[in-house]
Amino acid sequence: MKHFSLLILCALVLLALGQSAAAEPRDETDRVLERMAGTWYDEARCAVLTIEGRTINGCEVVAMEDWVGGLASGGAKFRIREAGGECMRTGCEVGTREDRAGGLASGADSRTREAYGERTLGIGWKLFGGAGDYITLAGGDALQRTLTPDYFESVGGVHFGMRTRTVQEILGEGKELSREEPCHAGDMSFSQGLYYPDKRLIVFHEKGIVTGLVLLRGSKLRFERSGLMANDSRKAYARAYRLPQIPEESSRSMTAAYSIAPDENLSFGLNGSYVMLSIYEN
């Protein structure tokens, strides 16, 4: 009977220990890596990074350092331990491309650690849950988790997640806006993006992919899902996209954004000056 009681006690202790371990919160590294989980492709459709569990390209992530931002938008340095002295490569042959996983060491700190089989990868991310999601490696161009981003709305064949090079193949080179040469609409001055004066269209882009579209008053282009133009009323937009209210106009001091799909938001300029489709809510 004593032996039986002892066995029961041991079982209860082990169960309690197991539940305690399971209840331990995941650390920040796990949370970030979980959000970035998957295989990430470059513009050439080569698989550059595969993030799974606590590994990057099959190599253990030892630590995450210098984290800035948050889970949705941020960046950090990841120390990885290379298996067999070299991190497994994925996808296309990387050769001497320093912006791909096999050859990425970031700074003197990484070179010092190479003797111990460790490297540091600088990874940035913008992950809001839509077609515009991307990560960057060592500050390079965007890597995307899918080769065919699942977008909701588009204008003139241009949509979130499309490569900037493809946009220029469709619409032409466009004029790169700047602080010195912005485009004014209402009380807004757009100082970034590709501007197409003849189409009255601005295409925002980051790291080589589309992150926003602005239809300016007088544009003959339409939002392809709804068929609406910049000159259409806000009431028409509310009806077409089933918004809970007629949208308010935005200004330099206040942006009112209205979600029409995951990671896709509309905002409206003063006096009908523009309609903007953006990834970000403000």
What does the secondary structure layout of this molecule look like, with pairings?
Layout: H1 2-23, H2 28-35, E1 38-41, E2 47-52, E3 55-56, E4 59-69, E5 73-81, H3 107-114, E6 118-126, E7 134-137, E8 154-155, E9 158-159, H4 164-171, E10 175-176, E11 183-185, E12 188-190, E13 194-196, E14 201-206, E15 209-216, H5 234-240, E16 258-261, E17 264-268, E18 274-278
Antiparallel strand pairs: 1-2, 2-3, 3-4, 4-5, 5-6, 6-7, 8-9, 10-13, 11-12, 13-14, 14-15, 15-18, 16-17, 17-18
The class by helix and strand makeup works out as alpha+beta
> Would you list the SSEs in sequence order as H and E?
HHEEEEEHEEEEHEEEEEEHEEE
- Assembly category: single chain
Amount of beta strand: 25-35%
Structure description:
The structure is a single chain. This protein is α+β, with helices and mostly antiparallel strands and 282 residues long. It folds into 2 domains: 28-92 and 114-144, no CATH class; 154-278, no CATH class. It has 5 helices and 18 strands. It has helices at residues 2-23, 28-35, 107-114, 164-171, 234-240, and strands spanning 38-41, 47-52, 55-56, 59-69, 73-81, 118-126, 134-137, 154-155, 158-159, 175-176, 183-185, 188-190, 194-196, 201-206, 209-216, 258-261, 264-268, 274-278. The strands form 4 sheets. Strands 1-2-3-4-5-6-7 form a 7-stranded antiparallel beta sheet. Strands 10-13-14-15-18-17-16 form a 7-stranded antiparallel beta sheet, with helices on one face. β13 and β14 (201-206) form a beta hairpin. It starts with a helix and ends with a strand.
